[in-house]
Amino acid sequence: MSDAELVERFERGDVGELHHADHVRVAFAYLQTMPLLDAIGRFSAALRRFAAAHGRPELYHETITWAFLLIMHERMQHAPGEWEAFARENGDLLRWKPSVLEAYYPDEVLQSELARRVFVLPRAPLTGVVSRN
Predict the structure, then answer these.
(1) Does residue 130 lie within any of the structural domains?
(2) Number of structural domains in the chain
(3) Apex CA 48: angle with CA 44 and CA 50, to 5°?
């Protein structure tokens, strides 16, 4: 199935059950076919509809969604290519547990209601921070 067909089916809700790796595949298709901010907006909206259509709207998590898209976008700039090559080179993105986001966020942040509702920036490590004073 082409990226365009995958995106169209996802937006129609015609994809059945999706596991984490499937979500990453769909996100890849969005990022391959549109600018980053458009991909974030459209993928997030479609994912909310997907969760609601399956009776689980509370499963949508803004920080997880945006963070994955941002990480994927950055990695795609280093090695553009097709899905199979991307998946092979970025297996850490395909695993749900442990998640690649554990390197960016403490559990208490990702489990917070704030992170579920809005995108929360990752916290920078305190070592090596230069003071602006």
Answers:
(1) no
(2) 1
(3) 115
Q: Which residue is listed with tokens 């990226």?
A: 3
Portion of the chain with pLDDT greater than 70, in percent: 92
62-78 and 36-53 helices, crossing angle to 10°: 140
Domain that holds residue 16: 3-117
Query: CA 103 to CA 51: how far, in whole Å?
Result: 26
- Give the integer Cα–Cα distance in Å for 133 and 54: 51
Q: Is residue 105, in this structure, part of any structural domain at all?
A: yes
Element containing residue 34 per DSSP (H, E): none
Convert the pLDDT of each residue in 96-130 to its tens digit: 898 999 999 999 999 999 999 999 999 765 444 44
Residue 36's CB: how many other CB atoms inside 10 A?
16
Give the separation between CA 122 and CA 54, rounded to whole angstroms: 30
Please give the angle made by the CA atoms of 42, 45 and 51, to the nearest 5 degrees: 135
> Tokens 């999706």, residue?
18
